[in-house]
Design goal:
It contains 15 helices and twelve strands. With 444 residues, the chain is of the alpha+beta class. A hairpin with a 3-residue loop joins strand 9 and strand 10.
Length: 444
């Protein structure tokens, strides 16, 4: 596929990748579906607006920035660009370019949807369609193109429900469209720009690895999907993840304060919480939400990072540079530094015992500062989950032997009583220059 007008750029200093001023990060179908399920499965919050509105916010902001920079674009060209971005990023095929002039309503039929297909990986049949990101993107795109508010719904016969296509119904509303906000990044401490050079595994060519990953064809194919490393990737909006995660955290915190027995009921709605309750009996209140969000990071680390370390590209480029198993950790961190997540550095590594990892410009902290201000507790949940999974993959699963990354194996590796668990000890969103995670074996 050719996307000549879609041009993301990477800041080599911070590791941040942007598209039309919007930070973008790579994530896989497993993380995307699990994070959505974290929100969906809580029956005590308004979950659908969190998912749909977060997509609308980021899509409208990005596309508005592009159209403002290129005011000469016609309506047809704007719709075509919005469709191209969606397909380039691996979200599927959203036929926006086919929409006629303004009508009282539109129907968009997707034959391929990243979220629709990802949600079909879950056990059992869904009770409702789940293409909330798709709907939110469409609403945000039309708001940016037509400068008008739209409402919408997903028809029940959707890909996520086992059907061959997803149909979105979009209707203009009478609500006044508020100006699209420009979200500025608050200033960071001066030390935040003092990113140290690597101190561990210097024989691993990180610059070469980053360049090689950047050269891979990681953009949507003819179906608008990015199959790579045994998963389906998306070049996703960093602030979609941030808005979903932090809006969910606040909504659940509010629900816990008003529903007396909600904390006890959640153990039975989320199997992962039930497991971690036995492992860490102190989990209460806010920590229920944070544990779920960290678990999404565990899922991502196991599947995406594990998939990379099983791939042909890994064995062609990175494995030959590794002198021992510890170098695999250095190599995968180099890959992470190509994903738009900031700049990660291994600060301390005691094989099979302890990992200390630091991140400069981590996207979760930056997003929290942009949208919610300074945090009063550590919030780099994805980072915590990834760091834990890396240690589990290397020293519990022995990823160097190319094990099959099945769900049963995930439970065996990441939920072992001898498994590794991370705790965050510094956080950019709290005013630190970097975020830090310490990973050690769980103490029972």
């Amino acid at each position: 596929m050719d996307f000549p007008n879609v041009s993301p750029t990477r800041d080599a200093r911070t590791g941040i990748v942007t598209l039309d001023n919007e930070p973008m990060v790579f994530h896989c179908n497993h993380y995307n579906r699990f994070l959505q399920l974290v929100v969906e499965d809580c029956h005590y919050i308004k979950r659908e607006p969190i998912l749909t509105q977060s997509a609308t916010d980021v899509a409208r902001r990005q596309l508005t920035a592009h159209f403002t920079a290129q005011p000469e674009l016609t309506r047809a060209e704007r719709l075509a660009y919005a469709q191209a971005v969606y397909q380039y990023c691996g979200f599927g095929q959203l036929p926006l370019a086919d929409l006629p002039a303004a009508q009282q309503g539109y129907q968009l039929v997707e034959t391929h949807s990243h979220y629709g297909q990802a949600l079909r990986l879950n056990y059992g049949k869904r009770g409702w369609p789940g293409e909330f990101f798709d709907l939110g993107y469409a609403l945000g795109a039309l708001a940016a193109v037509d400068n008008q508010n739209f409402g919408g719904k997903i028809f029940d016969e959707a890909i996520s429900m086992g059907f061959e296509a997803t149909t979105l119904h979009l209707t203009p509303t009478e609500n006044t469209l508020t100006p699209c906000p420009v979200i500025a990044q608050p200033p960071l401490p001066p030390e935040a720009d003092c990113i140290p050079e690597r101190q561990i595994g210097l024989h691993i060519d990180e610059a070469g690895i980053i360049a090689a990953v950047a050269g891979l064809p990681l953009f949507g194919n003819s179906e608008g999907l990015i199959p790579a490393f045994g998963v389906n990737l998306t070049r996703h909006y960093a602030d979609y993840y941030n808005l979903v995660s932090f809006r969910f955290e606040r909504a659940l915190e509010q629900a816990l304060s008003t529903h007396r027995y909600l904390g006890e009921m959640l153990w039975y709605e989320y199997p992962s919480l039930f497991f971690y309750k036995d492992k860490f009996s102190h989990l209460q209140g806010r920590e229920l939400a944070s544990t779920l969000l960290v678990e999404a990071g565990h899922i991502c680390g196991f599947n995406t990072m594990g998939g990379i370390m099983r791939s042909d590209a890994w064995y062609e480029l990175i494995a030959p540079q590794c002198q021992d198993k510890n170098d695999w950790l250095v190599g995968i961190v180099a890959c992470i530094n190509a994903l738009g997540w900031g700049v990660w550095r291994i600060f301390e590594l005691i094989p099979n015992e302890r990992l200390v990892i630091r991140a400069w410009h981590p996207y979760e902290s930056l997003g929290h500062l942009r949208h919610f201000g300074t945090a009063d507790h550590p919030i780099d949940y994805l980072m915590v989950g990834i760091a834990s999974s890396l240690m589990n993959l290397l020293y519990n699963a022995d990823i160097t032997t190319k094990p099959d990354l099945t769900l049963a194996f995930y439970y065996q590796v990441n939920r072992s009583k001898q498994g590794f668990w991370g705790r965050q000890t510094a956080c950019v969103a709290m005013g630190d220059a970097y975020s830090e995670v310490v990973v050690e074996r769980a103490v029972l």
